Amino acid sequence: MNTILCILGGIFCLNIFVTPIIEHKASYHPKKTIESTPKQIKLPYEDIFLKTADGKKINGWYLDNPKSDTVILHFHGNTGNMSTYLNRISSYYKIPSDVFVIDYHGFGKSEGAISDQTLYMDVQAAYSFLIKKKYKPNQIMVIGVSMGGIAAAELAATQKIAGVIIIATLSSAKDVFEQHVPFFLQPFIWINSTYNVTEKIKKISAPILFIHAKDDKLLPYKMALKNYQNAKEPKYLITADGGHYDMRLSTEQKAKYVEFIKTGKILSH
User: Fold this and answer.
1) What is the dihedral of CA 204, 129, 98, 253, to 10 degrees?
2) d(Cα 195, Cα 197) in Å, to the nearest integer?
3) Any idea what DSSP says for residue 187?
4) Of 22, 60, 248, 251, which is most buried by a Cβ count within 10 Å?
5) Is pLDDT above 80 for 8?
6) Where are the domains of the chain?
7) In whole angstroms, what is the distance from residue 90 CA to residue 108 CA?
8) Could you read off the pLDDT of 110-166 as tens digits, one per residue?
9) Which CATH class is domain 2-263?
10) CA–CA separation, 86 vs 17, rounded Å?
11) What three-state secondary structure class fits 210?
12) Which residue, 255, 269, 134, is CA-closest to 208?
C-alpha cells in the first residue's frame, strides 16, 4: 500500500510541478528582440500597441496599402516574433493587401506570458483593432501558420470574417502529444493545453483553406486531413511538397492560394 501511495504521489507531483514547465517550454519559443521591421524592406507601417482583456499590452504592425481596401490578419508560429516573418508580411503586401500582424503575450515587445487563454485574448484584441479601423468582416482575411493556425481557428469560430487559411497546423494538443511521446498514457501524464483546432473547425462558417506538407514530421499530414474532414463547405485543401519547415508550393498551388486570399474561393479546385 505504501508503495502504491508513493507512486501515486510521484505521478501527482510530476504532473503538478514538472510537466507544465516542460510542456510550456516545448510549446513556445518566443524571442524578445525585434531584429528588423518593415522599414528595413522599404514598407510603410504603423507600430501599434493594443490592450488585451487582462490589461497587458501587445505589439503589432499595421501596413496600409493604398492599392487595397481589404486586410490580411496574420498569426505567426510559436517561434521568434513578428520580425521573424517579414518575408510573409512582404508577400501579403504585394498581393496587394493591407496587412496586420501581432506578437502574442511574451513575444517581442508584447507584455505578459503566452498561454492558451492569453493567445485567445490576443486574437480578439487584433480583430477589435481592425473593426475599429472601419474594416467590415467581409474585408478581413485571416491566415494562421503552425501555432498561428490555432489563433486563426479561434477567431474564425467566434467572429465573422471573409475567410480563413490554416497552414501546417495541429489538430489538437492531445494528438501532438500522442504523436511525439510514445509512452503517453493517461491518467499518468496530464496534458495542460486545451488547444483543439478540430473542435473549433466545426464551428467555422467562413470559407476555409488548409495548406499542409505531405511529409510534415512535426505535425503530420493526417492532422490536416482530420481538420479538413471536420470543416464545413466551402472548404479547400492544398497538399504541398516538403516538410513543416521547408514546405513548397508549386506555381499552380501559389496561384490557388492567392486566388483564395482575394476571393474566398478557388474556382479551379
Assistant:
1) -20
2) 6
3) T
4) 60
5) no
6) 2-263
7) 19
8) 999 999 999 999 999 999 999 999 999 999 999 999 999 999 999 999 999 999 999
9) alpha beta
10) 37
11) strand
12) 269
